Prior knowledge:
Layout: E1 2-7, H1 10-23, E2 26-30, H2 44-60, E3 63-68, H3 74-77, E4 88-93, H4 105-114, E5 120-124, H5 127-134, E6 144-146, E7 171-172, H6 176-181, H7 184-190, E8 219-220, H8 229-235, E9 241-244, H9 246-252, H10 264-270, E10 283-285, H11 288-296, H12 298-328
Parallel strand pairs: 1-2, 1-3, 3-4, 4-5, 5-6, 7-8, 8-9, 9-10
Amino acid sequence: MKMFHYTMHNGCAMDIKNLSKDLNIELTTYIPDSRPHEDYIINDQKADLIWERHKDSFLSNDILLFSDTMPMSWCVLKNLNKLPSTTKIILWITNRFNYAIENSKDYYNLINQTKHSNNVYFLFANKFEKLYLSKFCDIDGIKSFDFLPYGKRTIQDYNCLAIQNQKNIPYLMNYENETKFFNLKQILDEKKINHYFKTQRSNENQYCGPFEIINCSCIIHIPYSWSTIAYSEYISLGKSFVLPSVSWLSEHISGLWFQTSKNIDLISNYSLWYDKNAESGFNYFDNMDHMIDILKNKTLLQEKGNICLSYANKIHNDNLEIFKKIIETK
Length: 330
């Protein structure tokens, strides 16, 4: 079994690489070295160029998988009649199916024309991606699966020179929600809570992926997205997240950044950060004092981390079964 994976995201590439190893699939991955925003803007003419550039791979692989932003699949969806009837097209939507081409009627028409094809499958990285697609296209009857980020990694996946010893301290993510819109870094510094905060490095060979925080006690994060690849990478290491509760988030969401929608009901019901299957392994704070109490409770963080690891193993096994089901479907 041979698979060609076209992606715009390194984490998605790693997910599928490790899944392919587990299923003994021969994998070829294409991921551009440079990804300026204009390269995400696909139209019919660009789709033709991508088809011509990769036509040999499209025609010679049993599975064609597109991840991160689904518009890259335009090149194949418009050429289904040129592919062998047994070729399976898998669209793993991890970052909005219409990213960068939200106003393209041609694209929506193409999806509606091909969505029920026998060999086209939709995978959703979180519940919101499916809900979002349904706002633009009638998705009744499509072949689809919930396919959470995979997250399984090995240290050999990285050019890691050394893993730093973070001495069981929390890791504070360094996105804008934690630094610019609500400065958790400043709060932790003022309260003298020792923590790890990554800064830009000059030597990228020091990058250890998720293993960089293997010695941290937990991850502090104010979500900006419905899910991330990092979510699965960290719980696969047995690390729990310390997150704002829904009530805290509802009070502060207007001042934060969140993808697509700041509707607190949507976030609490459709984001992986508040998913009922995962919440028993996460820690939710209602205020800053509550957050500090959680960070100081090392036993609690370890117990929650063990729950996260069990859940990550379930995601891993579920994804393997989903992929096997797709492969074995005639």
